[in-house]
Design brief:
Elements: H1 3-10, H2 14-22, E1 29-30, E2 36-37, H3 40-54, H4 59-65, E3 69-71, E4 76-78, H5 84-114
Antiparallel strand pairs: 1-2, 3-4
Length: 138
């Protein structure tokens, strides 16, 4: 199938499919005319790439891991235990990012809780924060 058909089949834009090829994630055959030719395995690979991207992995990491996976009909599964260190590293990176987001949310919750309630009819200048030494004039 050509790139347009693969795009329709997977829901992934042609531009993104070309990017996956640039990143070494897809290796379509080329027709003598230069057109890319994809098969069903490529469609499954694209779905696997999307799954790994959704799991938070970068295309660089996916390029390293993809050769160590097989598609069992349900999706990509590891074909070798050599993937485990990379998968654990990515999980730790995600755990750290989640902890940072939780801390940011807690800080925001603290600011929200400390903000006095008020209506929209308040004086807008009363909410304007001024830097030290700056006078707000009306």
């Amino acid at each position: 199938m050509r790139i347009g058909a693969l795009s329709r089949r997977t829901g992934v834009s042609q531009r993104l499919l070309r990017y996956y090829e640039e990143q070494g994630l897809l290796q379509p055959r080329r027709r003598p005319s230069g057109y890319r030719e994809y098969d069903e395995e490529d469609a499954r690979t694209v779905q696997g790439i999307r799954t790994l991207l959704a799991a938070g992995l970068s295309t660089r990491t996916i390029a390293e891991l993809l050769p160590c996976t097989v598609n069992d009909g349900q999706g990509l599964v590891p074909a070798c235990s050599g993937m485990l260190p990379d998968l654990h590293r990515e999980r730790e990176r995600l755990d750290s990012a989640i902890a940072d987001l939780v801390a940011a949310r807690a800080a925001l919750d603290t600011i929200i809780a400390a903000t006095p309630p008020g209506g929209t009819e308040e004086d807008p200048d009363a909410c304007r924060a001024a830097a030290p030494g700056v006078t707000v004039t009306r």
